[in-house]
Amino acid sequence: MNVRFDQPLGESQPDNPSRREALKLGGLVVAFLWLGGGAKVLGRAAAQGPVAAGDAAFAPNAFIRVGTDGAVHLVMPSIEMGQGAYSGQATLLAEEMDLGLDQVVVEHAPANRKLYANPLLGEQATGGSTTIRFCWTTLRQAGAAARALLVGAAAAKWKVDPAQCTVARGVIRHEASGRSLGYGEVANAAAQLPVPDKVQEKDAAQFALIGKPLRRVDTAGKVDGSLQFGIDLRVPDMKVATVKACPTFGGKLVAVDDSRARQVPGFVAVLKIDNAVAAVGEHFWAAKQALDALDITWDHGPNAQYSTEQLFKDLAEASKHGTPIPGKAVGNVDGVKGKALEATYQLPLLAHATMEPQNAIVHVRPDGCDIWTGTQVPARCVDVAAKLTGLKPESIVVHNQYMGGGFGRRLFEDPVEQAVAFARQVSYPLKMVWTREEDIAHDRYRPAYYDRIAATLGDDGKPVAWTHRIASGSVLATFAPGAMGKNGMDSDAIECAADVPYEFPNMKVEWVRHDMPEGVHLGWWRGVGPVHNVFVVESFMDELAHAAGKDPLVYRREQLQKNPRALGVLNLAAEKAGWGKGSLPARVGRGVAVAAPFGSYLCVIVEAEVSPQGEVKLRRAVAAVDCGIAVNPNTVAAQVQGGLIFGWTAALYNGITIKHGAVEQHNFNDYRMMRINETPALEVHLVDSKEAPGGIGETGTVMAFPALFNALFAATGVRLRSYPIDRAALVQGPDALKAVITQATDRAAAAKEGMA
Amino acid sequence: MKLVRMILALIAIVVVGAAAFTAYAWFIVGDGKETGAPQPAAAGAPASLTDPVARGEYLTRAADCAACHTVPGGQPYTGGVAFKMPFGTIYSTNITADKETGIGDWSDDEFVRALHAGVRKDGKPLYPAFPYTSYTALSRDDVLAIKAYLFSLPPKHAPARPNELSFPFDQRWGLSVWNALFLKKQRYEPVQGKSQAWNRGAYLATALGHCDECHTPRNAMYALKRGDALSGEVLQGWKAYNITSDKTYGIGNWSEQQLADYLSKGHASGRGTASGPMGEVVQYSLQYLTPEDIGALVTYLREVKPQQGSAGSEVNDRPALALASSASAPGAEELAQGGLGQHLFQGACSSCHLWNGQGRQSEAAALLGTQAANDPQAHNLTQVILQGSTLRTAHGETSMPSFGQAYTDAEVAALGNFVLTHFGGKPATLTADEVAKRRAP
Amino acid sequence: MIVLNINGESRSVDVPDDMPLLWVLRDVIGLTGTKFGCGIAQCGACTVHLDGAAVRSCVLPVAAVGTKAVTTIEGVGASAVGKKVQQAWLDIEVVQCGYCQSGQIMSAAALLAATPEPSDAEIDVAMSGNICRCGTYVRIREAIRQVATGQKVAPQTLPNEAPNQAAATGQVLSFVRVEGVA
Ligand code: FES
Ligand code: FES
């Protein structure tokens, strides 16, 4: 296990301890900026050297330390939530330093946005499929610089030309003389050398680790139960709380009668905040029993009558009468002659439902505060804790933890904020764990969207005009208001709508902002903006192909002639799926979708079957992926597989609905998850590419929706423009519902007849 | 012309007759004389309970007032529970001692009259969703003990929800006619020659527990068919099973222990778990009865005239498919058949119920031998899948989540059919259409 | 006091009878490998073995355990099957966030102990009670097949101490779930 755990529990952590500790321990410290291409290594520090913590002029914001024991530490600005970030970033470093991946010790970065902001997001945050993209060049350059310094030190000692030295697994060798030295042995000497002006990262042909399906660094502890997630931590003297917030958005707590709760064995206390109540117990069970025994009176507040129907009415209204903000304009869509088509798409609010429910341990003391939690935004956790406690940010320490899924949920620190608000009322460390019900009812939901889209087809059936108006709330406006465009545009709302892989001679894309009522919070969800837009664009492309009387794949191919990478994945997927070959049974159809989200290119083909009663079965899916260089192809494939299933789950079953101002779903019984017996045969084919890596974590989810919906259209002739899939609309004639359902089609036999 | 005159005369007679009868009905409804009827020898609370409020609490529970007057998760006895009847929806009322919205300013006589004659404080008749046709058999002492208990609780302000009834059912005068026809205002009289236990059981089952109100079939006028007592009826989508002593269709084959367990704990090994309205009866009422009273109920039920009931179903306790399954997998042949129902059972159900129907985490999840899996119309099976079920007793809580929201009619039908054939050996009968109807009974 | 036999050790706990085994394990004994996901037996994250059978500990009252042997993820590696399952999980890297995987491994180990060579349909039966939000189902199937057949049916990971090897080949890299391998 080569991942270092956080500081021992219960111990306070000074600002950026790893770094000060590093300086005390000696060795070589390489500090550098996480900038995009062209970044360079800015300096290094020796034991007690001048590059003391936070030398302002120097402003390093990340570092690599080679200890005198030879261990190579990398402080990770990104966090690990299953996407393989730690392993991917460590691989880049190990590659340039000629190490095994096992020789890199990965550390969770402390909260410090000056040092660890992700330059693509402008925040110390992990998300948007940016992890590899933002450090692809910098981290490799830093590694190459470190290697150059270490080899330089050895060569100087031996008085040989550094170019004659080789390195394998951190051991520098001079073949001619047969001498060798480990990195640790020259670390202090290397620290005295001047930093090279220019270093050359390896050429792709020289990669030893990049492109290999290396085993991830964090998985061993996840198969034997030893790795601890935030929810698993236990701090001395802590008590456990579970929470109920006002079920109605924006509602308030009026009164709590805890007389029954006090009878619960293990009961400790009831804590109140403005809009929620926590029951505290010696363990979760006591807390939960006590919570259930509370008689709570709520003031349901201004949204007590709010509903999903109202939400969509408002969005439709905004789309018609709101002020559209231009996102993209090419040519002139007005007055273009031809066959006109238009459609309205409507997408629901969605919950994240990470497998690990929201949790945090917070210990507020007069002089400081410790927070143990798995978060995608550690610096924001410090912000909210400072605000609530009045403590100095420097005295607040976030001990980041492994996460049981993120999907964007842990980009929002509201659970930590709530935990701090409760914990500051008590002296002991308070561990707050949400039930699944609380997790579903108080998420930051993926926005609902209302899209009106139209196109005009020329005589040859090609789209000559394309108009797309999106209406939605804005996540960006609350997450990073400063990142909103000058004209008020939310770039996320139109991502992959303004930039489609096709060329349309006339195109207009615009967005209308409609804010949710107070208390209804929106958030990023796996696939962010593209997960909405690619569904609409690729569904509508299918509608156009159908209107033009063309095969939907062939139709796309025609519009992709100037986009070789998109064309490449389209053709690869078509070939692997046997598109157009063989005949399919009745009510079985194939759907295709192609897109270029997050700097990668994907084409997904889904084969689905619809029973006479409208039940949907995925039979097979083929994904072709060109994500540039795949740092770890195994991880890339895993992300695409998992991303597809994440998307299909929502397509088939999900949609948060609101009635009387409260969410109607509770747990996995009514916020339903796809299961293994619904999972189709699933192939992922990666294009061997030499392009710089694109993002991957969210791409599968983005592609899942349109490929499936297009398959449903092919199977039934019914075009669905919202989800979860309205299975009633797919019923084959009214008699189907009068039939006694005893057996569905035999799955195995059906799969065999499929795409051979 | 003669004919016309005769017809007119006939109509006139009918009208006058109806008016006279209505007047009579109206008059007897307001009649307070029933309170003077002889007191029954049987009293509802155990003799050991002497404190009047404690007696009242015991009786209030035995009469199961909470189930109808408390919405799930709501304040006890504040009403608001919806009763969907074939002719509209009735909401229960606030029976706390709140003066404005509850019964705080009801006199003893008014309270007694409500339970004995089905009349509100203002003299208007109550709908028989309120089981006064059973409570009429209660002794005045018992009724007043209930009142004393209710008045000992903190009054809660909770205005009643207006009923949603269509004409003519919204006309309360019609009820007077109904009462005249179907309400027998009579206190319980111990039956000579029967044991004390039997008599006590009878009083608990008929007057207090009002078992008939659910388990006895009703006629077209919504009145109980006393001749078919306890032979089973479907109410609000749930089936109140045949609880006569019939060995095949009723509970004649249940052991004393099974009956006692079912009544007091909501679960009888090998027979199933109370859910839906019966679950509420156990939760709010039966679990609080003394073991002697449970025993008395069992004694009484044992002697209820055996009846086949309509659409009676035999419980198959050796269903071939369940027997061919292990705890963790169905038999190979059945597995090979696949099917939507089996497929859904794999994911959402088998974790608790197990393929052999034994129940895993808790015996409450056992399906083998249950009425639910053996009712060819799958009434309760459908409702439990749609709405879930929670049973809270002194022994802890067992619950099953609801699946109605996220699963389609076709899925619920397929799953129900799977359970019927696999655990009951019954032919599949459910259709998506039928499930749709049952969603909104 | 309730005496439990957990991973071969006897543990006494002073807890209410109706407390689910899950919370006894996690919050009283400190075995946190068993996870909480839903609390209503819908996700399988809390799966442990009771005398070898997979059970959902979130709805199992501790008093119902009796003298049955409890095995958790921390102890499953002591059995030959458990060890093989864990190895296969690493070899084809089933894990993503890992939160559901304790439960997945416990379900898979129980299946393979009872049915050493499960068919695809049997795998689905045994594993459908376990939700994975990261969507690792394809690889769960493959890993179980790998244990059952002893054959490497899916692309394997390279141990991460990987030596310098030839660079990636200039071809399409496929991660194909092979249909019908049993
Ligand atoms: S936590 Fe037990 S099944 Fe989900
Ligand atoms: S690996 Fe994340 S939930 Fe399964």
Explain briefly what this protein structure is:
The complex is a heterotrimer of chains A (756), B (441) and C (182). Chain A is of the alpha+beta class.
Structural summary, described in words:
The complex is a heterotrimer of chains A (756), B (441) and C (182). Chain A is α+β, with helices and mostly antiparallel strands and 756 residues long. In chain A, 28% of the residues lie in helices and 22% in strands. In chain A, helix 4 packs across helix 5 and helix 14 packs parallel to helix 18. The radius of gyration of chain A is 28 Å and the shape is globular. The N terminus and C terminus of chain A are likely disordered. In chain B, the strands form four sheets. In chain B, strands 1-2-3 form a three-stranded antiparallel beta sheet, with no helix packed on it. Chain B has a two-stranded antiparallel ribbon with strand order 4-5. In chain B, strands 6-7 form a two-stranded antiparallel sheet. Chain B has three domains: 165 residues, no CATH class; 107 residues, Cytochrome Bc1 Complex, Chain D, domain 2 (Orthogonal Bundle); 120 residues, Cytochrome Bc1 Complex, Chain D, domain 2. In chain B, helix 2 packs across helix 6 and helix 17 packs across helix 18. Chain C has 182 residues and is α+β, with helices and mostly antiparallel strands. Chain C has three domains: 72 residues, Ubiquitin-like (UB roll) (Roll); 73 residues, DNA polymerase, domain 1; 27 residues, no CATH class. In chain C, 33% of the residues lie in helices and 14% in strands. The N and C termini of chain C lie far apart (47 Å). The C terminus of chain C is likely disordered. Chains in contact: A-B, A-C, B-C. The interface between A and C is large, with 97 and 83 residues. Bound molecules: FE2/S2 (inorganic) cluster (2 copies). Chain B: It is found in: Cell membrane. Chain B: It comes from Dyella marensis. Chain B: GO terms for molecular function: electron transfer activity; heme binding; iron ion binding; oxidoreductase activity, acting on CH-OH group of donors.
